[in-house]
Design goal:
The protein has 17 helices and 22 strands. It is an alpha+beta fold. The strands form three sheets. Strands 3, 14, 15, 16, 17, 18, 19, 20, 21 and 22 form a ten-stranded antiparallel sheet that branches. A seven-stranded antiparallel sheet has the order 2-6-7-8-13-10-11. Strand 7 and strand 8 form a beta hairpin. The structure holds beta-L-arabinofuranose and zinc ion.
Length: 640
């Protein structure tokens, strides 16, 4: 059923916007995060490197030093960092980084038990607790991340140490759960998608069989996690194991209808389901993926591609419950949404998947990191009110500024590995076609022989030029947001009609294909079924959602509303170099010190300045709003 696959990690050499981001990751984020893993950066302690050293000591029967520190899934921070390092090494050689990565890998390999078990939390101590708490213990989650890192590191450097450790660990898991048939279902999906990757990299079908096992076993015994809980006298967080919907264990995956439960876990699971459906041609599984895709994108997703709107369990809420100020919208969840979209695209190259992948990437995923690459959002609210955000009991999770690290640090290295491997999401290939899902500047050389340079100022400019080095068939996405488009081949207008959001065009060596997309800013409105958004609008230009920050708007954005009939202009000046800001016709309500009053406020017309949402919170503490109320039609300048 697979129609196309992701581009390999060496297929894309980025320049332009993506190139600048990848340079930031390679120059700053990866070195910074390495310092964090070694506890040399200040801020939240990580102890990840030390955990591996201590686990190796414990395996040798020595004193385990200062023991284990951190979340039960602390190992996964090292794995994600290694994966980002692998992608970076595939883009450019870096002897220092490679030496650091090799050294960390040797520590990881030394922390692996003889039977292949690999997890510092249950090696340093509590070895008798191994595999007894799949609900909370994250052993399969950490194994999955280590497998992903190993596959990437092997593909980029050809080095096998981590791959061999990951294979040994995966075989340990295969033997236990598949061959020996020990009961178990991953509390946090991740192992499934990782085993699919490992199966492709090694050609060992046992890993796909294990992935299939974990997907198929889920929900077959809705009581599994409760029974697992009852059988042990310890927990990590006190989870009862009784909430089947939250744990995605209430029913077999092919019967799932609505995206529910912990958002990251959910989309990691759906990614594996889609991957498996495409490898095994499982129509029922694919139908479930399509239903769940609809559930997320039509009823449970923020305009920024954020998902999982409630802090309670970092989870999906019910349909249309998409509050801006208390949004959870974890960075990892949008990364997982990109994964899911990318797998769905492999089965069905339909622009609807790429549109969402792009929305999630350019808005929530990029917002997860500061401009300088040193601070990170885990939670991505769509509204920030200093004094309330991060402070009120209902808003504690919605921090108004990015911290430098987290006790639970899943998001920062996840963003690093995703940005560093953007080529895999931007480009895809089938035997005879090059798929251009995202507009990413740089040179592209695909496994099928098609090669070209892509030149664009995207996401700030909307002309995209493909200079063909080795011809073939190109499938170029026409984004759902672009109301118009113009395509020329060697300056000759092409009358190509998009098929499910892609134009398919034959190109030869030396050809120049040019795509011009709609560059006009637009208002976006929400269904009145979303209580938080009725009578409001937000602003978009290209794939970027814009927001209003106090810094550009007299310190106050709460008193602004949109002048609905007004034309949005590109501002002559912008607070961010090379990033167009937008001048938006607005009305400002007068300030008032009294809590309640009866004299009708008289709003004054004004121009509000909007910046891309992904750049918010880079200039100190300030209020931010993305959706503003609309005036019902144009209002005269005197405010009446
Ligand atoms: O549980 C591992 C990771 O930590 C999850 O994916 C995140 O949501 C955070 O809870
Ligand atoms: Zn996260």
């Amino acid at each position: 059923m697979k129609i196309q696959k992701q581009a390999g990690i060496r297929a894309y050499k980025a320049d332009g916007f993506v190139g600048r981001y990848q340079k930031l990751i390679a120059d700053t984020v990866i070195p910074y995060q390495y310092e964090v893993l070694c506890d040399r950066a200040g801020g939240e302690k990580s102890h990840v490197r030390e955990n591996f050293i201590n686990a190796a000591r414990a395996l040798r029967g020595e004193d385990a030093g200062d023991g284990f520190y951190g979340m039960v899934f602390q190992d996964s921070d090292a794995a994600k960092w290694l994966e980002a390092a692998a992608y970076s090494l595939a883009c450019r050689p870096d002897t220092k980084l490679e030496a650091e990565a090799d050294e960390l890998i040797s520590l990881i390999a030394a922390a692996q038990d003889k039977d292949g078990y690999l997890n510092t939390r249950f090696t340093i101590s509590d070895r008798d607790k191994r595999w007894t708490n799949l609900l909370e213990g994250h052993e399969l989650y950490c194994a999955g991340h280590m497998i992903e890192a190993a596959a990437a590191y092997y593909e980029s450097t050809g080095k096998r140490t981590l791959l061999e450790a990951a294979e040994k660990n995966a075989l340990h898991i295969y033997r236990r759960f598949v061959e020996e048939g020990k009961p178990g279902c991953p509390g946090h999906p991740e192992i499934e998608l990782a085993l699919m990757k490992l199966s492709r990299v090694t050609g060992d079908g046992r890993f796909m069989k294990a992935a299939e096992h974990f997907v198929n076993i889920r929900g077959t015994d809705p009581d599994y996690f409760r029974k697992e809980r009852a059988a042990r006298d310890w927990t990590v967080w006190g989870s009862s194991g009784e909430d089947g919907e939250y744990q995605q264990s209430a029913r077999p995956v092919r019967e799932l209808k609505d995206a529910a439960g912990h958002a990251v876990r959910t989309v990691y699971l759906y990614t594996a389901m889609a991957d498996l459906a495409s490898e095994t041609d499982d129509k029922e599984l694919l139908a479930a993926c399509q239903r769940l895709w609809e559930s997320i994108t039509q009823r449970r997703m923020y305009v920024t591609g954020g998902i999982g709107s409630t802090v309670h369990g970092e989870a999906f809420s019910v349909d249309y419950d998409l509050p801006s100020d208390t949004a959870y919208a974890e960075t990892c969840a949008s990364i997982g949404l990109m994964f899911f979209a990318s797998r769905m695209l492999e089965i069905d190259p339909d622009g609807c998947y790429a549109d969402v992948m792009e929305r999630a990437f350019y808005n929530t995923v990029l917002a997860g990191m500061s401009e300088d690459g040193k601070r990170f959002f885990y939670v991505n609210p769509l509204e920030i009110i200093p004094g309330i955000s991060g402070a009120a009991p209902t808003h504690r999770h919605a921090l108004p500024e990015r911290p430098s690290w987290f006790a639970c640090a899943c998001c920062p290295p996840n963003a690093a590995r995703t940005i560093m491997s953007l080529g895999k999401y931007a480009y895809g290939e089938s035997e005879d076609t090059a798929y251009c899902h995202l507009f990413a500047s740089g040179s592209v050389e695909l496994g099928n022989g098609i090669a070209f340079e892509c030149e664009t100022a995207y996401p700030f400019g909307f002309d995209v030029t493909y200079r063909i080095k080795k011809g073939g068939r190109l499938a170029v996405r026409i984004p759902g947001w672009s109301r118009t488009f113009r395509l020329t081949l060697n300056d000759e207008e092409q009358a190509a009609e998009p098929v499910k959001g892609y134009v398919y065009i034959e190109v030869r060596d030396g050809d120049t294909l040019k795509l011009e997309l709609d560059d006009s800013p637009a208002y976006i409105y929400a269904s009145p079924r979303v209580p938080a958004l009725s009578q409001k609008a937000c602003i978009r230009r290209g794939p970027l959602i814009y927001c209003f920050e106090g810094t550009d708007n007299g310190g106050d954005v709460l008193s602004l509303c949109l002048d609905a009939g007004g034309t949005i202009e590109i501002s002559g000046s912008s607070p961010f170099d090379g990033v167009p800001a937008l001048e938006v016709p607005a009305l400002r309500y007068p300030a008032a010190d009294t809590l309640y009053f009866e004299a009708a406020p008289k709003p004054e017309p004004c121009k509000a300045l909007a910046i891309p949402y992904f750049l918010h919170a880079n200039r100190g503490l300030t209020p931010m709003r993305l959706w503003l109320f609309l005036t019902p039609g144009r209002v005269a300048p005197d405010g009446r």
